[in-house]
Amino acid sequence: MTRLSGITPSGHVHLGNHLGALRRWASEGGPDDLYFISDLHAMTLPYRPERLRALTRENLAVLLASGIAPETVFVQSDLAGELGALNWVLECTCGYGEAARMIQFKEKGAGQDTARLGLLTYPVLMAADILLQGTTEVPVGVDQNQHVELARTLARRFNGTYGEVFAVPRAVVPRTAAAVRNLSDPARKMAKSAQQHAGVVFALDEPDVVRRKFRRAVTDDLGTVRYAPDEQPAVANLLEVLGACTDVSPYAAAATASTYSELKDAVAEAVIEQLRPVRDGARELLDDPAELDRVRQKGAGRAAERARPRLDAALRLAGLR
């Protein structure tokens, strides 16, 4: 079994990414699994090259500092040659209607006079990411399940038309903690792209910054510390974070504080300790660019080595070799 997961460097890694994905990748990842920084996917919307470059390195450092095995991590653009070749083959296997009906294209392209072509075709690039590595399972959320279905369709179509090359992957719903909500607005998830950072705790935030953000977190006027997501969503969010960081249920976490002030302080300290090794390890890697480049190059080499036989077979069967 080979699983593939990625994170797009559209912003700084935040607490929700850590609790919902990175921590799980580090503890559950197998030797054949791969994790990558999908910097090519970050180009589908307007961006600044220097920021993309910096965020790619920062995201890579955070993944490594989270305890994910270095040999399983790579940066997507380091395989640009292999991906570009397979992406073209798959684009010539995919119909326009199949790409245009992708929900994310409709949502992100809505209201744009000139949506980038990459926004339309990036699900095919995602299929190339998946199929190039012989992936059999893709842990995804509901918003990405449609893209995995497209990868399955293209794998079957290529195999049936030209010959068997690709494993047909399946989407799996990962076991995660509840989605971490924005501290300023619990109706929204914590997100890298948030315009206001007051409600988002980033993996590299200093302890004093983390404390300040939690002290300013919204609660309600009920004044009762209890886990009731429907009635007290903001308090429930704090309890879910505290529970995830201390390995107890939100109900048990509620018994550790009697006031909102006590709860906020407890959550802040738990988060600081949870993120401390990640923050320290990532800072150390970012301060040693030669070491980060070495690990990046090694991970890219392993991913490329795994991909080449499959790419060569696909190109040969498609008539290009």
Structure description:
With 321 residues, the chain is mainly α. Helix 2 (49-65) links the parallel strand 2 and strand 3. The radius of gyration is 21 Å and the shape is globular. It has twelve helices and five strands. It has helices at residues 15-28, 49-65, 80-91, 96-100, 103-109, 117-132, 142-161, 207-215, 233-246, 250-254, 260-286, 289-317; strands spanning 4-7, 34-37, 73-75, 137-139, 170-172. Helix 2 crosses helix 11, helix 8 runs antiparallel to helix 11 (260-286) and helix 9 (233-246) crosses helix 11 (260-286).
Write the layout of secondary structure elements.
Elements: E1 4-7, H1 15-28, E2 34-37, H2 49-65, E3 73-75, H3 80-91, H4 96-100, H5 103-109, H6 117-132, E4 137-139, H7 142-161, E5 170-172, H8 207-215, H9 233-246, H10 250-254, H11 260-286, H12 289-317
Parallel strand pairs: 1-2, 2-3, 4-5
Helix pairs in contact: 2-11, 3-6, 3-12, 6-7, 8-11, 9-11
Please tell me the overall pLDDT. Answer: 93
- Strand arrangement, major sheet: 1-2-3
The helix tally amounts to 12
Residue runs with pLDDT of under 50 for 5 or more positions: none
Strand content: 5-15%
Order of secondary-structure elements:
EHEHEHHHHEHEHHHHH
Main pleated sheet: 3 strands, parallel
Keywords:
about 325 residues; mainly alpha; three-stranded parallel sheet; two-stranded parallel sheet; 12 helices
